[in-house]
Amino acid sequence: MKQYKMRFLIHCLLSTLLLVVGQAAERVDYVKDVVPILRAHCVGCHAVDDAEGGLVMEAHAGLMRGGVSGLAVTAGEPNSSRMILRVNGKAEPRMPPEGEEPLNETQIATLSKWVEQGALGPAGSVPSMRGLNVPSIETKPDVLLPLSAVAVSPQGLVTAEGQTGRVLVKDANGQLLHALTTQNSGIEKVNGLHFSREGDRLVVASGVAGAYGMAVVVSTETGEVLQELGGHRDVLYAAKFAPDGNTIATAGYDREIKLWDSRSGELLRVMLGHNGAIYDLAFSSDGRVLVSACADETVKLWSVATGKRLNTLGQPEGEVLAVEVTGDGKFVVAGSSDNRLRVWTLNASDQAQTNPIFVTRSVSDSPLMKLQAGSDGSRLLGLTEKGDLMVIDTKSWNSVLTLERLSHRSTDFALTSDGKSVLVALSNGELARQSIVVVRQADKVLSQARKPRYFEIPAPVEVKESELRKSLSQAQNPVMKVEGGTVIQGAIGERGEVDAYQWQAKQGDVWAIDADASEGSLIDPFISIVDAEDRRVLRVRLQATRDSYFTFRGKDSKQIGDFRLFNWQDMHLNDFLYAAGEVTRLWMYPRGPDSGYNVYPNEGERWTYFGTSHATHALGEPAYVVRPIAADGAAVANGLPIFEVHYENDDDPTRLAGKNSRLIFTVPKDGDYTVRVSDTRGDGGDKHGYRLVIRPARPAFRASVDKPKADIRKGAGREVVVRVDRFDEFDGPVTFELQDLPKSLGSSFPVTIERGQRYAAGTIWAADSATPWEEEVTPKIVARANVLGKVIIQQVGDLGILKLGEPPSVVPSIQPAQKTVGVSESWTLQVCRGQSVAARVVVRRKDGFAGQVSFGKENAGRNATHGVYVDNIGLNGLLVRQGENERGFVLTADPIAEVGKRSFFLRAEVDGNVTSFPITVEVLP
Known about the structure:
CATH topology of the largest domain: Methylamine Dehydrogenase, Chain H
Number of domains: 7
Largest sheet: 9 strands, mixed
Helix content: under 10%
CATH superfamily of the largest domain: YVTN repeat-like/Quinoprotein amine dehydrogenase
Radius of gyration: 38 Å
CATH architecture of the largest domain: 7 Propeller
């Protein structure tokens, strides 16, 4: 009996042991059994950065947390777990979705058993869900792997060059110091190299696309791997040391920016906000701001100290591929896939900020992939997608040199420490060195290309076309010989006729060609100049730097206002605008969403430049911002057209001569030149007479003044507007002086019309205590200017009889933003180029007057330097509302504003437009 009991006990123990062993053998392991299934079928749609339905299956915690529909896994209950029901088809919609490979029965059974066993997570580390199950393919020994990255230490003592699975660290002589490989450092594809400021450490941006991203920090002295900075879920494109070397920023395809302690490898913070791959990073020169370039078509600025986003720059119209901060810390520069280089101002702050766009340029017909600023701040180097390496001048932001193409495509570059040469990584695995010391001035301006010579000749000779023809053969439209300094009375006798007059000219001489319709003539003259070989003479070439088109509505040939242009934010004051052969110039920015640019001269009919003729522009018509390059100057291709402007004209560029033609001709070389005269419509007949003058150019001006139309009120002023008509392309400043003003009055004179401008404004002002003068006085205005080295003085006229009136309904005054000064106290408001400053306008009301007081709209600020304007005024302009006594305003100085001091006042639209006492606005660099 005892023997039987013993056998039964042994049998039970063995059965239990076999059951335990069997159950242990059948337990499902999350890492070994579940992860491969999820990776192959689920993670593609349920990753952390793209979680369909809010369900993250990339990690155990996310899977157990569930999604927007609730729990996906109920531990121990496979028959009620949504994940199991969806994969076995018992619940809709079935997963994976239609079109994707479904799970087989074995995989479903594995997941079901895992859930039944409690859906336990991993006991230790989990391999990346993004690991790649691909076969290992060995590269043939004779294959040349491209260099993908190159870097030079700030001291120039060490260089690094990287390619897939290898980084070579060399000394200044090219001797190998250390070799990093996948085996000794873990690096895979090398996308970026960056040295610390001391040059003692190198950080490598690496990883495997679709799997993980990792940065490796290496000692350049020993070659030892100091830190491995992981945690990214996809390949890294950028890893950069902060200027102080204490922080490293990493970013890549997983849309995350991570900041690390470079010494300990501790993760400091993660910055989220981009919606695409992050291709590049750059620290500000003080290390307080980090700038990122992203495929979501934005540049973002981040506070390094807090990780907070400071600003998003959304102007790019394509993926932003490269970003850089200039050495002086003033600008952020970015290159994007829309083939544009954009520059923003960078404020010296790690607080939330606005960063106005400074300039936009098309510098290549291929996107910029990398940017590096020179240490002296004068130039920027850029590498394009097609492998061109170009030098960009940081004053004009134009490309001035494209380095000679090498035998193979360039993939990366690094400036040497002396800035005189550049190391270029090539697609065949070689490293080349190119010099950038000599930069061709491809954008030399016209004034440097030729030196004009102004001269005088005796009184012009008058001749008739009919007399000139008598001595010629009967050939159709023969060329008639004349002398320079001739006045010709002629006529276009029939349709299509072209009269031609030839004279000799010397290089550099400046001639003026005038063609006017005779009295009662129907001709609309058109003139052009050809050389001895009957070829049109080229005046200038205009290289487009930005492209645009007319929006909202077109423009006739006279309008100056409301030029609405696509991408107007990328344009700037004084930019030349080319459209349909006409060149205008931008004078004033749009003043809100329902407005457009004003063009020169901001009043009357618009001016044209380079002798071009006025044209009508249609809605949607292409337009380009252009820059002049000399006719014989080299141009660096930037993907936009170059327009040739010849010596020809239909209408006077300044419209002073109406539809008559005016042309200034600077002779390019000695020879015979012919001026052709025709009707712009091709008409002709008895009433198509003209007067053609070939004369030496004589730059000159004609000054005028608008007299005050009302009394000078006590406590306020009256505006005096002065103007100049400019002849033969005279472009200089003109100063107006006021004489014989009564002692009871003050003024802001002398007043200067700035170079290239049409008008300016001054004010005559009476104090509250001003007393009437006994005799009638008529103050006089005198204008003076330097023309070709001579001071020319003109008596402009008088202001009429001035009278003193009673105090106006309001006495306006300009006050500082934070304090109050006397109504007639002189003070200076300072504003830096590219910045704004606040001030106030205060009105002292007369008893019984409580109405609103308007100070104008886009022209609210009077007599400010061109480019200084009252900003942010809205649709109603600068307005003190009914019953109120003051209004704050902002004065902005554009970067083109001339540095210096100038009187400034406001004009209230009451009592015939009274003005404030003038203050001084000083524009600082």
